[in-house]
Known about the structure:
This protein is mainly beta and 70 residues long. It has strands at residues 4-10, 13-18, 21-25, 33-34, 44-50, 55-60, 65-69.
Amino acid sequence: QAPVSGLVVVGATLYGAGDVGVFRSVDNGVSWRSAGPKLPNVPVTDLEYRAASNALYAATFGRGMFMLQL
């Protein structure tokens, strides 16, 4: 269990930001897995989804911004 600082819903997939990175769930939050190998395991302070580019943006504490193409 870890605190969640942001939650984004894209279709049937949940994306959660927290103290150890970004995770995704495809079963309504029952189980969670890492959202992507290119995202670091650092505190993520905010998430934003852009439908036009089908991308998820993660703002981290101390590591900058990351984009995950969905």
